[in-house]
Design brief:
The structure holds 2 protein chains of 2 kinds.
Chain A (H helix, E strand, L loop, with lengths): L2 H16 L10 H5 L3 H15 L5 H7 L5 H16 L1
Helix pairs in contact in A: 1-3, 1-5
Chain B lengths: L1 H43 L3 H23 L3 E5 L10 E4 L5 H9 L3 E5 L9 H7 L3 E2 L5 H11 L1 H6 L3 E4 L17 H9 L3 E7 L1 H4 L13 E11 L1 H4 L5 H14 L8
Parallel strand pairs in B: 1-7, 2-5, 2-6, 3-4, 3-5
Antiparallel strand pairs in B: 6-7
Helix pairs in contact in B: 1-2, 2-3
Classes of the chains: A mainly alpha, B alpha/beta.
Chain lengths: 85, 262
């Protein structure tokens, strides 16, 4: 999946499932959209579904520091690369 | 005049005596009696979290029983249906530090969301951690704790456990409800669990916020009632968190306990 495709799918999830309005790639998820750690855990479950593999506990802990949609995309690319290896 | 002064002094002395007796229970019932069971449960139980929750329930049942005996002027009307709630999210208004203790005394299998700072307290923090209570924030070590407990929440609910939360986050004054934190509604939606709504009154008169001693002399009734339930909405995958919050707030507003609350 290219970064653009990833971005499209993540934005769609955030709008449809997390009630985001006009999300920008560098918006602060917490301050601008009220996205908290419970949302983060729910989003990780959806990312697992999307990618078709389980994200490890350590990777999930790293994901808790994500602040923007760009960070989410970076995170997904990193774990995808790690799982390919 | 002199007589009134004597009564005030006497009331103050009784308030202090009751408070000290409650602290004696807290410290000595734990150290001399319950601590052994906690140690045994920690070493031998196959499900430490469940065992610790049951011990917490028994400990606070004892505490509330003692308080009721020591403060006969206050009547307690606790809805019997509350103790039978299973596999649900429970939300309640928050008036006093006694409120979580009442719920712990009623529910043998329960978790709650706790201010992160409490996890740092010696012994107390460890007990809460082993009991599976969730931290309010996910910074540092709490991120791992929150992931672990939230991921196990589905099994916990299926096993009959309840998550009780005070969505106002802090104690409220009067009948006004504060703004709700939305985390609890997100969890209800995530696990498709009913939200049981409880109304509570007058615990702040027995243990007023900002004071150290119980107010034992005034006569009134401490009530905790099941005032409604949001069930069908959480079964719907697409329900919004805002709608869940609105529905819960409406239940509070319709209740006679919150007449006129915003």
């Amino acid at each position: 999946m290219t970064r653009d495709e990833l971005q499209e799918r993540i934005v769609a999830i955030l709008v449809d499932e997390f009630e985001f309005e006009d999300p920008g790639l560098d918006d602060n998820l917490r301050d601008d959209h009220g996205f908290d750690s419970i949302d983060a855990i729910e989003l990780l479950a959806k990312i697992e579904e999307m990618l078709g593999f389980q994200i490890s506990r350590k990777e999930k802990e790293q994901a808790m520091s994500i602040r923007t949609i760009s960070d989410i995309l970076d995170f997904i690319e990193t774990i995808q690369a790690a799982h390919k290896n | 005049m002199e007589e009134n002064r004597e009564i005030t002094v006497l009331a103050g002395l009784v308030n202090w005596a009751v408070t000290i007796l409650c602290w004696v229970y807290f410290i000595f019932a734990f150290l001399l009696f319950f601590s052994w069971f906690y140690i045994l449960a920690f070493c031998l139980s196959r499900n430490r979290e469940r065992s610790f929750q049951y011990l917490n329930h028994q400990f606070f049942k004892g505490f509330l029983g003692l308080l009721r005996v020591l403060v006969p002027a206050r009547q307690w009307r606790i809805d019997q249906r509350i103790a039978k709630i299973r596999g649900s999210i429970i939300v309640c208004n928050h008036r006093s530090y006694l409120d979580p203790l009442i719920l712990l005394s009623l529910l043998p299998r329960s978790k709650t969301i706790v201010k992160t700072i409490f996890f740092k307290a010696p012994v107390f923090g460890w007990l809460m951690s082993v009991s599976g209570y969730l931290p309010a924030t996910s910074d540092g070590k709490n991120g791992a704790r929150m992931i672990k407990h939230l991921e196990n929440m589905g099994t916990f609910f299926e096993d009959g456990g309840n998550l009780f939360v005070f969505p106002e986050g802090t104690r409220s004054r009067g009948t006004d409800l504060r703004v709700f934190y939305r985390g609890v509604f997100k969890i209800a939606r995530m696990y498709h669990r009913p939200i049981e709504v409880l109304g509570l009154s007058n615990t702040d008169k027995l243990f007023p916020p900002g004071k150290f001693v119980f107010e034992t002399w005034k006569q009134d009734i401490i009530r905790m009632e099941r005032i409604g339930c949001v069930n069908s909405a959480v079964r719907t995958r697409r329900v919004s968190v805002a709608d869940l919050e609105k529905e819960v707030r409406q239940i509070f507003q319709k209740s006679s306990m919150f007449a006129g609350a915003l």
